[in-house]
Amino acid sequence: MTTTTAEGGPGLPQERRLVTQIPGPRSRELFARKQAAVPPGIGTTLPVFVTHAGGGVVVDADGNSLIDFGSGIAVTSVGNAAPRVVERVRRQAGEFTHTCFMVTPYESYVTVCEKLNALTPGDHEKRTFLVNSGAEAVENAVKVARSATGRQAVVVFDHGYHGRTLLTMTLTAKNMPYKQGFGPFAPEVYRVPLAYPYRWPTGPEHCAEEAAEQAIDMISKQVGAANVAAVVIEPIAGEGGFIVPARGFLPRILEFCKANGIVFIADEVQTGFARTGSLFACEDEGLVPDIITTAKGIAGGLPLAAVTGRADLLDAVHVGGLGGTYGGNPLACEAALGVLETIEAEDLVGKAARIGEIMLPRLRSLQERFEIIGDVRGRGAMTAIELVTPGTKDPHPTAAAEIAKRCHAEGLVVLTAGTYGNVLRFLPPLVMPEHLLEEGLGILEKAVSEL
Ligand SMILES: *Cc1c(COP(=O)(O)O)cnc(C)c1O
């Protein structure tokens, strides 16, 4: 069976349509081939093989059309095969596909950097350079901070996720699956508490102040502020469970960094590009980071990531000290320009906020009905529920897995997350039509109530 249209993108019928079991026979056949050819270390959330996607749906090889609450992990925020992205990439592919920006440069790379310098928080002078993945961006941000400060230590937080390379898996908090068996880890990485309101021992009202005090005390006493090159933090912890730090925590950490010459690196790889109802999540508390790392939503799925920061920091690195063969590939740069045009033309910042206004009240009323939902949180189109054993705060990862399984069977793509694996996270494309958002929420509510 094939789909009704040859093309993906927003022209795909915006409907949930199940014509086989999930996964269907064609996907099962392809999955068997995957298992024989690809190592199991590359996991699979939902084994349907995609042929088309666009708007709020993903269409599989059996002709099923699924509602997408994942966006390929917060990547296709502008929608899959978004027209402005497709048009620019098609044109660029016919002109040239690669020169290496460090060999013979091209304009689109510079334009992306100019735009990021202008759009990221703060009106100070900035520089940007481009790489291929979120991990590479974070790793490079740390290189810049070390080079500029002459210091070595890096401070990260509980529940943090920063990637899978040696340095970034070291920066990541969770052992299984990200670190298990992959040591020894990179030296000079120190972890301090995050202001996690739901699980703060003395309650959410004291969380920001106490967590900041503990973090700063640990940095001062155990590491020595003068030895710290950088603090790396996600303004909302992503893989760690969509934890929104208690208000006041991030500004306090930033202030401490400023007072001690520590580079504050905001890892906005997951929160960036309109996802949380502002272009960058740091804007919510008016934070101006020294360096900001971006990726995921930046280029509609083409591999691109960026390091943007204070000119004096980025200019401190010697000529040739930064870069890579593919970083800022011309197709990916064109895609990024198409993404930025789409965010503006379709008011995706406003759309993300609107998605939050629809989802959060629905999730909270579900929480009132079902004690298994311990916490509802998030901002804009980055929301989550945390599952617990009723009457306690004990993490309930099997409930999260079971609800996800039921949603998948009904044609709703949802992802899990969390240090304890007990969080269901929702990351719909920002262009998702409202009727699909409502239908997806209905499927989720049914899955929770039937558990
Ligand atoms: C996904 C993610 C990364 C890693 O990005 P990759 O492109 O997978 O290397 C880093 N930081 C955060 C906050 C992320 O969500």
Automatic annotation (TrEMBL):
- PROSITE patterns recorded: AA_TRANSFER_CLASS_3 (PS00600)
Q: What is its EC number?
A: 2.6.1.19, 2.6.1.22
Which domain of life, per UniProt?
Bacteria
Provide the protein name: (S)-3-amino-2-methylpropionate transaminase
Q: What class of enzyme is it?
A: transferase
Q: In which pathway does it act?
A: Amino-acid degradation; 4-aminobutanoate degradation
Q: Where is the signal peptide?
A: none
Record key words, sorted: Aminotransferase, Pyridoxal phosphate, Transferase
Under catalytic activity, the entry for this protein gives:
(S)-3-amino-2-methylpropanoate + 2-oxoglutarate = 2-methyl-3-oxopropanoate + L-glutamate; 4-aminobutanoate + 2-oxoglutarate = succinate semialdehyde + L-glutamate
One Pfam entry name: Aminotran_3
Q: Which GO molecular function annotation, any one, does this entry have? A: pyridoxal phosphate binding
What is stated as this protein's family in its record?
Belongs to the class-III pyridoxal-phosphate-dependent aminotransferase family.
As cofactor, the record names: pyridoxal 5'-phosphate
Question: What's an example Gene Ontology biological process for this entry?
Answer: gamma-aminobutyric acid metabolic process
